[in-house]
Amino acid sequence: MSTGTPLTRLTERLKQPFHRDGRPTRLHPSAVWAEASSTAGLALEPAWRTVRKAWLTYVWPVLSVVSVLGWSVLAATILLWWAGSAYGWQEAKAAAVAAFVMFLIAVCFILGRSTYGVVLDLARTRVAVGDSAVGSIAVTNTSSRPLLPASVELPVGGVTAVFHLPRMKPQQVHEDLFTIPTARRAVIVVGPVRSVRADPLHLLRRQVLWTEPEDLFVHPRTVALAGSAAGFIRDLEGMPTTELSSADVSFHALRDYVPGDDRRHIHWKTTARTNKLMVRQFEETRRAHLAIALSINTDEYASEEEFEMAISAAASIGRQAIREQRELDVLTQKGPLRCETGRNMLDDMTRIVGTPMRRTAVDLARTLADTVPNASVVFFVVGSNVTATQLRSSAASVPPGVRSLAVRIEAGAASSRANIADLTVLTVGDLADLGIVLRKAAA
Predict the structure, then answer these.
(1) Could you give the C-alpha distances from 200 to 29, 69, 206, in angstroms and in order?
(2) Contacts of 260 (CB under 8 A, 6+ apart)
(3) Angle 42-46-49 (CA atoms, 0-180°, nearest 5)?
(4) CA 278 to centroid of chain Cα atoms
């Protein structure tokens, strides 16, 4: 296969009019067209870059000022003038002149330069659902002359807030406060702040950006679980296992000395009393490591309320684990979440978007077992549509010796506890009951 530019390949092919067996070659029209198009694209690429740069730098800023209504007026002006000239309609010509004069007057409203100093200040960039999100916009006239009244727009998510600026003297500061609703978990883009100058009919609209956009994280609502995890994460170093060790921190019993044992573990008081060497036997301990499998398959939830409650429950458990300085992993069907700090975890949970998918909670449990093999406590956070059979299959993926609990969210149901083999199933009907249910599981 020949290499080089499309032009070189086309030239080489044209130089080979015959096959090796002597038959004449035939160039397919589509192949010739493809090679020619590629060559033209390479040749015109520098010119296209120059034209595109000039368009974005000089032409587009001018054309973008004209609104849809402004383009309509210009089109009507041309149409009326043509009709008046073609059919001798003086009224049409007069209407065309009036429309054009109106457009020229609109130009006068957007001319000039506005020199503002704009500061967008969000009191907090991270709030929980239901908390107040307050911000302010401070606009300063940084020029040496007064500025006419204008408008300042602030995009907040999918809506735009409009603030009206009065006539401002040099160095005068005008400040407006605003409140952002936080009824739902979301990442809200606030800004950029832009000043707008337009004519009364909004034929022309000129805007200037003054700030960068900022992200406002509305974290899921969480509840405090102080002390609720103490029942199944008992000691400082982790949960004791059934495996015995000759050296650890969890004392188990005394046994007879066997040649090769570490003499530092000889219990001398018991040795003196029994007149034979006795050594300490320990239980191996496991560093407390929590893993949370949060299903984001919306088919497993009866309502959006259940889905949001599941995210809040997982966030509450993860937040408590981080406060207790436990190792933590949180996994969804779309991958792991950051858990270095509580802020990172809540930020990633705020970005979660639930979708119907083929991967169920059972598939997530298998992925969790492979991803976090050293977990000591595993939480499955699922919706009310997950069956007992699916929960049993999820628990079967957990390695032996790992404490597993399923937090089953069912909005409005009475909170309860049940067991499916070694799996503890906690039904939560209200987020406020999460701490109580966990204490029951630890009892």
Answers:
(1) 58, 12, 13
(2) none
(3) 120
(4) 59
d(CA 405, CA 390): 13
Name the residue with tokens 């399923």: 406
Q: Where are the beta strands (DSSP E) in 319-359?
A: 327-332, 335-336
Eight-state DSSP code of residue 56: I
CA angle 332, 337, 340 (to 5 degrees): 150
Segment 249-255 long-range contacts (CB within 8 Å, at least 24 positions apart): 249/282, 249/285, 250/282, 250/283, 250/284, 250/285, 251/280, 251/281, 251/282, 251/283, 252/281, 252/282, 252/283, 253/281, 254/278, 254/279, 254/280, 254/281, 255/279, 255/281
Q: How far is CA 277 from CA 246, 255, 268, in A?
A: 15, 9, 8
Is pTM beyond 0.85? Reply is no
Pick the more confident residue, 153 or 53.
153
DSSP E strand boundaries for 265-387: 278-286, 289-294, 327-332, 335-336, 377-383
Quick one: pLDDT band at residue 412, thresholds 50, 70, 90?
A: confident
Beta carbons of 322 and 288 less than 8 angstroms apart: no
Residue % of the chain over a pLDDT of 70: 83
* pLDDT tens profile 136-183: 999 999 988 888 888 899 999 889 999 998 988 999 999 999 999 999
Number of H helices, E strands in the chain: 11, 20
Alpha helices by DSSP H, 67-144:
68-87, 90-110
Residues in the chain: 443
Beta strands in 267-386 (DSSP E): 278-286, 289-294, 327-332, 335-336, 377-383
* Whether residue 105 has pLDDT greater than 60: yes
Q: How many whole angstroms separate alpha carbon 39 and alpha carbon 54?
A: 24
pLDDT value at 6 more than 60: no
DSSP code at position 22: S
- Residues 149 and 136: their CA atoms lie apart, in Å, by 19
